[in-house]
UniProtKB/TrEMBL annotation:
It catalyses: Hydrolysis of alkylated DNA, releasing 3-methyladenine, 3-methylguanine, 7-methylguanine and 7-methyladenine. CDD domains: ENDO3c. It comes from Streptomyces gardneri. InterPro entries: Alkylbase_DNA_Glycosylase/TA, DNA_glycosylase, HhH-GPD_domain. It comes from the Bacteria. One of its GO terms (biological process) is base-excision repair, AP site formation. This is DNA-3-methyladenine glycosylase II. The keyword DNA repair applies. Keywords: DNA damage, DNA repair. SUPFAM superfamilies: DNA-glycosylase (SSF48150). The keyword DNA damage applies. Residues 1-27, 40-61 are annotated as: Disordered. GO terms for cellular component: cytoplasm; protein-DNA complex. The lineage of its organism: Bacteria, Bacillati, Actinomycetota, Actinomycetes, Kitasatosporales.
Amino acid sequence: MAGRFVPEPTRTTVRGGHTPVPLTPDAPIDLGLTLGPLRRGPADPTFRVTPDGSVWRASRTPDGPGTLRVAVRDGEVAAEAWGAGATWLLDRLPALLGAEDDPTAFVPRHKLILATHRRRPGLRLTRTGLVLESLIPTVLEQKVTATEAYAAWRLLVRKYGEPAPGPAPDGMYAMPDARTWTQIPSWEWHRANVDGKRSATIVRAARVAARLEEAAHMDPPAARERLELIPGIGPWTSAETIQRSNGAPDEVTTGDLHLPGIVGWALAGDRTTDDEAMLTLLAPYAGQRHRAARLVLLSGRVPPRRAPRMTPGDIAHL
């Protein structure tokens, strides 16, 4: 199966308290395309790309905070990790880089998607194995502009998270643990421009974090069903979360303000496409609808803008 990795344990060494791990993928990997969906804005304190092309991530794992550095050199993936979560992160590195994804299962059925698929051979669908890490920033993105959501994530992680372990770039933080999310005062949510509905959803989710994290090991439909038991988590939020935590190739996002129109314009020349029509257009990609939608977005073919953009709000002045 394409996307499998072959570890080379004989080359693994321990040096300075961290473990370099070389992996040899059997197909190209584009770190930017594969890990890009995990980045919440250009100043995300949990994600950094350094000038040498390395991707740094600070995560809150079941074992504690950890920092992961990943780079691709001459077709080989090299990774290092630090902190209490280092071993957990390295053990799950192949899945993070798409080892459990099977790009060969995808058959392009539109010229646009075929052309994009050929131009993006390094696209893999990541699987982090961490639900809350994707769920919380997704809830922050509900019904607000990306700029507002990114700013809230940045402020809350920097204030209540902890500095990324190891020699991470300056300003990197691991997000708060579940208990800390439940203890953020109401005025701090207000200061981060997060309304009561979104903050209450995050608190409810954090209170049952252990049950939600189990969803990372479930089939995507069942995982989404578990998330949607939490008031405030609907199909849009569950899909956006499970796409990242479970590497779900078929969990297409519905309820999005822009995606149906983009897919409709790209595949049928119809900018008025709604969710139902979008799912009809993506039906030939059953089992791979999320990948198809990703390729549509990567094609760059978007309808000309007519409607005004969503206006940022500021609850601090309400």
